[in-house]
Amino acid sequence: MLSSDSSSTVTAAAGVLKSAYGIVGMAGVGKTVALRALAYDEDVQTRFPDGVLYMTLGQGATLETVLRELSNILAVTGAATIVATVKGSTTLREAVDAAVPWFQGRVCLFLVDDLWPTETCRTGFLSDLRQLLRDSPASRMAIAHAVQLSQNVLVLLLSFRLETRLAVRL
Questions:
Q1: CB-count burial class (<10 Å; 0-12, 13-18, 19+) for 124
Q2: What domains are there in the chain, each with its CATH number?
Q3: Tens of pLDDT along the chain (170 residues)?
């Protein structure tokens, strides 16, 4: 359930997270289950009428994996004309820049599951991916990560500007 109620604030050492959330834990603790529960929750679907959009990256994620997942999200939301551009991108930033106009003004929840610290998912990866939210102030992103985040990635996650609070009910 998503709420703007102050009692459901997700906090971290550096502050309150509002537009992007990191869900971190050991393998098997339920991060994927939590994301899937969000995806199917009727309150969440009502709060994000333009889509609850799920991406699974995995330990062996490559740029092609990320571009395929982003292309699938675009196809599901009706942006068929942008899919070819995204698939042909040579960087994630290029692909995201092509996708941003489609999501402008929409209210979506992006669920990114199984992020691992690979060369593809370097520190700048989260910043690039987060750009999907730049012209859509009501959209949000939740990222599930199974291993200890590097200090740079954690600082990046904690520095996101936020506007609502997240509470997960299972």
A1: middle
A2: 2-63+103-166 (3.40.50)
A3: 343 333 333 333 233 335 777 777 777 778 888 889 888 999 999 999 999 999 988 888 888 999 999 999 999 999 999 999 999 999 999 999 999 999 999 999 999 998 876 666 666 787 888 889 888 888 998 888 866 545 444 444 444 433 333 433 33
